[in-house]
Input
Amino acid sequence: MAAGGFMASGVECGVRSSGSLDLGILYSEAPCVSAAVFTRNVLKGAPLTVTGDAVTNGDVRAVVVNSGNANAATGERGVEDARRMQKIAADPLGVSASEVAVASTGVIGEHLPMARVEAGINEAAKNLGSKGESFAEAILTTDTRTKEAAIRVEIGGKEVIVGGTAKGSGMIHPNMGTMLAFLTTDAKVEKECLQKTLASATERTFNRVTVDGDTSPSDMAVFMANGVAGNKEITMDHAEFPIFAEAVEEVARSLAKDIARDGEGATKLIAVSVAGAKDEASAARLAKSIVGSNLVKAAAFGEDANWGRALNAMGCSGVGFDPAGVCISFGEVEVFKDGEPAPHDIERANAALSGDEVVISVRMGEGDASAEAWGCDLTYGYVEINGSYRT
Amino acid sequence: MAAGGFMASGVECGVRSSGSLDLGILYSEAPCVSAAVFTRNVLKGAPLTVTGDAVTNGDVRAVVVNSGNANAATGERGVEDARRMQKIAADPLGVSASEVAVASTGVIGEHLPMARVEAGINEAAKNLGSKGESFAEAILTTDTRTKEAAIRVEIGGKEVIVGGTAKGSGMIHPNMGTMLAFLTTDAKVEKECLQKTLASATERTFNRVTVDGDTSPSDMAVFMANGVAGNKEITMDHAEFPIFAEAVEEVARSLAKDIARDGEGATKLIAVSVAGAKDEASAARLAKSIVGSNLVKAAAFGEDANWGRALNAMGCSGVGFDPAGVCISFGEVEVFKDGEPAPHDIERANAALSGDEVVISVRMGEGDASAEAWGCDLTYGYVEINGSYRT
Output
């Protein structure tokens, strides 16, 4: 299932390791309203400057992405290369350069091999079709699987589809859409509404994922709405705006969890929920602190219900709270209750960590707010991948 | 070499794994002026409450420490147990309970086996002598070696010794003396001056170490000065105060680097220096962000001079700066210069990571401030230790 009026493709042009698709184009037949969010890393990859300009000063209807090279920390030449990617793609797509968003992901600090990139863009433009899977594959780096999601909702009697594709496996930490994500919809949506919907969904989904505490300089999420569904324009005041916003959040959440599950070297998804916090920001910070703790992550890998590490991660999250009001469960097993160790069967608690999805639930006595965060276990595989990524 | 008038011991009482010393006492024959700093984790181990009271309301001249159990997240009973440790030690030492500091380190969330602890304290008190090495061993957990340092300086014509012992290997992250450290001096020092000297040295040494980004609830550094050297009391205005402060900082730095070097699973010390920052706090934050990055740590393990990861960690440190003014070297090899990749021999750069000490130097164009931080590589050993610490 894909949003109407969008086409995609993915080809191999030799930027990433041989045998891998590494250049993709996503294209809308109709002009789009567009929105984007970017990394909060001080270091920003060159494509972010170029795509930021395009979405701020106008609207994009196509995205060209390469994997294998992030075009980040590449100075002035990097920005020129990103602008050239726009121009190269514009011609065969029959759009203006400013209608093309650019994204790059991979090694930091090397210049793009532009001859290969140019050949790849031309080939990908020729091959556009119902090839979302090829596009999803072309944007991967250390990811082990593609990440796609789509949902259908009815808005004003019209069927509308929200779709999305993302990549992300390492250098993943919540501080703005920490990976690449491309969302599409055939709904007609007002620009400001589209931006706010994307920002809000990002805050609650992509920004709730952490794999290793490092925020990439390449992160971006781009959302294009082409209106081919024929609905009355969605604005913040539209009666059915909440349905649209929930659909977008649902797609983004699905992609966010896919990213966490596919964290470098991961064998398990860790899902942490915090309830009873004083506000959503505190709940999110506590949940992210737990899911980001190397010690919690290693304990999940070792299938050890070491709840002290989860409590400790809360304690150093920067959020103030009264430990006496805290309860913690691993799966269904309560291990800490009202500030005291809760008598429990350790074997049963450890068993709650033995599957491919570990659920840690925290209740506090501070208020009514809650939040979820997602991450993965810390494994020998993570060390292996990152001890030998470049060489 | 040890500060005059201090005695120590370490015994096995069965709290930690069998065959390991796990209870130690450090004791001054003369009354002391004392100072202490504690973890900033919201969760504080019971001993911190008790020791904090003792150092705030009076002065301690003895420290009793157990390893194997942190007595943290143990509720009211935990605090009662810590107070009992004070009382048990006071009797054989011939001091009042309020002159005894208590520290515990190890697993979080289990009550102390008090019968064993009591027997251990009595035995340790009987065995006091020139046994700093036994004390240093008794306070270890996953550490692979003891950590001691001492320095001799002359203050007002009197020879003065500053000594120290520390432990720390996992759950190590800069947010207050992130481990246990016990400093001693035979100098006579005014209380306020001692506290300020300890706080300042902690900020520049212990707080600049990170092993895994998790701040322990048990961290504390206690500093006792018994004045047996016979010097004129050291105050902040004393002409030779800087000599004393530098000696304390030197001892603390040596212990801090020992902790980083002995990080769980570590094969290498990583030392990061940042110069040209706008202030020391920014320099420290940038240095700690680099040394705390899992990706930098894994690259050090893999002996891959992947400077993009160091630059990236700076970018997500929360400190604003202009990447165009940044230069980065691995050992002697400059890999990034004035915001652009610097042409360099990759083999030579990688070779700079092959020893047991990796030096990463950053220069920025923001100002004149500098700072150092220390950490270790991320290895299979770290995952192994923390995937199976408890079970």
Q: What stands out?
A: The two ends of chain A are 39 Å apart (CA to CA). The CA atoms of residues 40 and 88 of chain A lie 28 Å apart.
